[in-house]
Amino acid sequence: MMGNGRNGGPINNPVPKLTANQRREFLKCAKAARRRRSEMLDRVREGTLDLVDVFSMSDAGDVDVRRTRVFTLLRCVPGWGFARAQRLMRSLGISETRRVRGLGHNQRAAILEAVRRSA
Question: Residue 42 pLDDT > 60, yes or no?
Fold first, then answer.
């Protein structure tokens, strides 16, 4: 049977063995990250945080912001929804699964311009 590793060989990255305490700690960290990301998106929905602020937070190294999907972020912008966000992402050639950390300078500028024009 052919593997998916280099040269068709098997892949050798076993799942790490975690203790119950390690697993509990990782789950606690993940839950806190989801909460912080949710709070940030709520602030975008309320209009107390705009995309410029979000991109600045990302540039400052906020891991939770950097891991947020751009599509999810756009859907939280007041006046924007699923269809509008999807249309913009497709027109710019950006995958719906792209995260904030993966946006290039020109992509950010195009998103900011589109949101500014719609306001």
Answer: yes
Asked whether residue 14 is assigned to any structural domain, the reply reads no
pLDDT at 74 (0 to 100): 98
Per DSSP, the three-state class of 11 is coil
Residue 110 domain-assigned (yes or no): yes
Angle between helices 51-59 and 20-46 (to 10 degrees): 150
Backbone angles phi, psi at 74, to 5 degrees: -60, -40
Range of the domain at 110: 36-118
Distance, CA of 45 to CA of 73 (rounded, Å): 9
pLDDT tens across 80-89, in order? 999 999 999 9
- At residue 71's C-alpha, the angle toward residues 69 and 73, to 5°, is 70
